Amino acid sequence: MKGRLLVILLAGLAIGALLAWLLVTGTTHVALVEDVIPAEPPPTPTPAPEQRITLFFAGGDGLLHPEIRTVPLPEDTAARIRIVFAELLAGPRSSLQPILPYPAELRALFVTPGGRAYLDISGPPEPLEGSATELMMVYGLVNSVLLNTEVVAVQVLFEGTERATLTGHLDLSRPLVLNKDLIGR
């Protein structure tokens, strides 16, 4: 009986020593492999190709007029909308007038699989007046987004909320489509 107990004890010690040796040599081996193989640097992102976009700004005749620009334009629809919005904020490079009468900010953006875009922009610091202001602002944004993306309709939200109208002349409670009647030559 004592002999059997001694054999079990020796076997346990041998197994413990083997496990300790495997742990020590396994850890050292991994550290050596990590030291030998250098980490690959992350790939450099490929810049988006430059493409022509059409932006709409207000003319003195109460219509929207196109202005063509060449900008880096990625494939991602949301990224394209952000670039179009930034270019609209930069204002026209010609004698046209800005469509945004205040320094707006694109707060959030969502594009559905069906191609509807929901743009949440910061609201005006003071109430806007006039149908022309509302039409130029909203359709300058909507038409610019629609003609430069795969989006089929745009709903504009202000400060995260849906508004029935901005100045009382245009129904903003639903997504809007391209309005060719407001585009001048």
Descriptive notes:
A hairpin with a 4-residue loop joins β3 and β4 (116-121). The strands form 2 sheets. This protein has a 3-stranded mixed β-sheet with strand order 3-4-5, covered by helices on one side. The chain is elongated, with a radius of gyration of 31 Å. By secondary structure, it is of the alpha+beta class. It has 3 helices and 5 strands. It has 2 domains: 1-39; 50-182, no CATH class.
Please specify the SSE layout and strand pairing.
Elements lengths: L1 H35 L13 E9 L5 E9 L4 H14 L15 E6 L4 E6 L9 H18 L4 E6 L27
Parallel strand pairs: 4-5
Antiparallel strand pairs: 1-2, 3-4
Helix pairs in contact: 2-3
Q: What is shown here, in short?
A:
Helix content is 36%, strand content 19%. The chain is α+β, with helices and mostly antiparallel strands and 185 residues long.
Features:
5 strands, 185 residues, two-stranded antiparallel sheet, 3-stranded mixed beta sheet, 2 domains
Q: How widely separated are the two ends?
A: 107 Å
Provide the low-confidence segments as ranges: 28-33
Number of domains: 2
- Whole-number average pLDDT? 85
Q: Taking Cα atoms only, what radius of gyration do you get, to the nearest Å?
A: 31 Å
The coarse silhouette is: elongated
Strand arrangement within the widest β-sheet reads 3-4-5
Percent helix range: 25-40%
Biggest sheet statistics? 3 strands, mixed
Q: How are helices and strands ordered from N to C?
A: HEEHEEHE
Number of helical elements: 3
Number of strands: 5
In terms of quaternary structure, the protein is: single chain
Structural class: alpha+beta
Classify the beta-strand content into a percent band: 15-25%
